[in-house]
Amino acid sequence: MTEGKKFNIVIAGGGSTYTPGIVKMMLEHQDSFPLSSITLYDNDGERQAVLGEALAIVMREDAPNVAFSYTTDPGEAFTNKDFCMAHIRVGKYGMRKLDERIPLKYGVLGQETCGPGGIAYGMRSITGMLEIIDYMERYSPECWMLNYSNPAAIVAEACRVLRPTSRVINICDMPVGTRRRMAYIVGKDYDDLDVRYFGLNHFGWWTSVKDVRTGEDYMPRLLEYVGENGYLTQKAIDTQHMDASWIATHKKAADLLKLDPQFLPNTYLKYYLYPDYVVEHSDPDHTRADEVIEGREKEVFGAAREIVRKGTATGGEFTVDNHASFIVSLARAIAYNTHEIMLCIVENNGAIANFDDDAMVEVPCVVGMNGPEAMCQGKIPTFERGMMQEQVAVEKLVVEAYTEGSYLKLWQALTLSKTVPSAGVAKLILDDLIEANKAYWPELK
Ligand code: NAD
Ligand code: G6P
Ligand code: MN
Q1: Is 287's C-beta closer than 6 angstroms to any atom of ligand 2?
Q2: Whose C-alpha lies nearest to ligand 1, atom 30?
């Protein structure tokens, strides 16, 4: 953008458990990404204020020259901003619980972004995302939105269809965390690797992992390692995904690899390739939402309350992780036109040569002042292509159901999901989800 500029940032979903990590990351990198102001925006003022009060103390102590505020007023939040870092959860953990529990009642897996739970969440997220995109465009037409809000695949398709010219970049931190594990496995650092990848969000494969300088091919070593251990590593290398359920997910990658031993799988493929296993290992009375409430949410909000109680921060309360580092690197790449390669969710348009042009795919992109420009990944094999065709149709049907208010299209989406065994089961789940989401979904006819 411009030399010497200091950036104005709004974080939408200011009350998110990930907000403190991103703020801290930005404070630690002011030499390469100078800040003028940080504003938090949320539509739940009470929740946001807990983090806002604590971060006001952190900011006063660590960055007194950077303006800081938190607000529920869209005009105040979005005016004069360069970047909006978004991570909203429409319906919060209360609705996530229902997304996970309702399908389990019918023997179908309950997951935040995959299967019926992800579809239900998608139908809620579209409304919230359109709202914040419109605020951004009204108050800061030049601003970029870097969006983590899930389910990123459905959100990205909704952006493509409903806000095609908006400056929104949809991203995911899972491949970043997994790549960190890969680097550790081969004794290298994250930036030492040069990777190729194709897929949809939470639905993809690495086709190549090489040393960025020497060109050494790490795939044979990684395939052997993952075939035995999944992505499980001795050392806590990706601190974000460390709960017991995540450890089981990293391990399960060994079984994902068996389906195609030439590519390294994204951990989320477990929900599509082994849904029966996932259901067997689920407790319908205690799902991942409960773990997050008892874990991450309690830790982050507990740390915030402690800072406020003491009136000072020791510096160790909030931690940065992959999630924070990726979004700040992305902002920097746009701001300084660095042309770094990062995975983003973009319209295919030939990036995957034998896949639909209008599918939102996750591929390596060159990122600069024009946003992400997809790198061509060539043709993909029949197995992966078949799986992706089915899943992308689910995602498109959800957005069509939303825009047309169509019950039939949403029933088709659920039926087509690889996680659902039949149209009959899909209908039972759908009817329960409609009841649970009355306050959030458009009316379906
Ligand atoms: P959280 O519930 O702690 O925070 C979400 C916040 O969004 C809440 O404070 C809530 O009040 C707010 N919110 C909801 N609707 C809003 C709206 N319309 N406008 C403004 N604010 C709104 O959730 P979390 O666990 O911290 O996760 C936040 C989001 O980030 C989720 O969507 C999650 O799935 C996503 N996430 C994505 C990735 C990725 O790889 N893309 C990684 C991590 C988290
Ligand atoms: C990964 C995914 C995110 C997802 C998160 C869920 O980071 O990339 O898309 O939201 O895991 O984590 P949780 O701990 O909330 O289940
Ligand atoms: Mn993700």
Answers
A1: no
A2: 87
Burial category of 404 from C-beta neighbours within 10 Å (exposed 0-12, middle 13-18, buried 19 and up): middle
Burial pattern 156-175, b for ≥16 Cβ within 10 A else e, equals: bbbbbbebeebbbbbbbbbb
Question: Active-site residue 243, yes or no?
Answer: no
Q: What percent of the chain has pLDDT over 70?
A: 100
Output the DSSP codes for 263-313: SEEPGGGHHHH-HHHHHHT-BTTB-HHHHHIIIIIHHHHHHHHHHHHHTS-
CB count in 10 Å sphere of residue 382: 8
For 193-243, what is each residue's pLDDT tens digit? 999 999 999 999 999 999 999 999 999 999 999 999 999 998 877 778 889
Q: What is the pLDDT of residue 1?
A: 52
* Residue 358, pLDDT score: 98
- Nearest residue to 166 via CA among 178, 175, 156: 156
The model carries a pTM of 0.98
Instruction: Tell whether ligand 2 has an atom less than 6 A from the beta carbon of residue 153.
Output: no
In order of 93, 225, 264, the CA distances from 258 in angstroms are 34, 13, 10
pLDDT in tens, 119-177: 999 999 999 999 999 999 999 999 999 999 999 999 999 999 999 999 999 999 999 99
Q: Which of 10, 11, 16, 129 to mutate to test the pocket of ligand 1 (most atoms within 8 A of CB)?
A: 16
387: left (phi over 0), alpha (psi -120 to 50) or beta: alpha
Residue type at 302 in one-letter notation: G
**Stretch 361-371: mean pLDDT, rounded?**
98
277 given a catalytic annotation? no
DSSP 360: E
First to last CA, the chain: 47
Peptide bond just before 381 cis, omega within 30 deg: no
Q: Residue 314 — pLDDT band, cuts 50, 70, 90?
A: confident
Identify which has the larger pLDDT, 281 or 237. Answer: 281
Report the SS3 class of residue 2.
coil
Q: Which atom of ligand 1 is nearest to the CA of 18?
A: 26
Predicted local confidence at residue 2, as pLDDT: 61
Kindly write down the DSSP assignment for every residue of 227-251, as one continuous string.
Answer: HHHTT--SS--STTS-SHHHHHHHH
Cα 445 to middle of ligand 3, angstroms: 31
The torsion of the CA quartet 42, 47, 53, 56, rounded to 10 degrees, works out to: -30
Residue nearest to atom 25 of ligand 1 (CA): 17
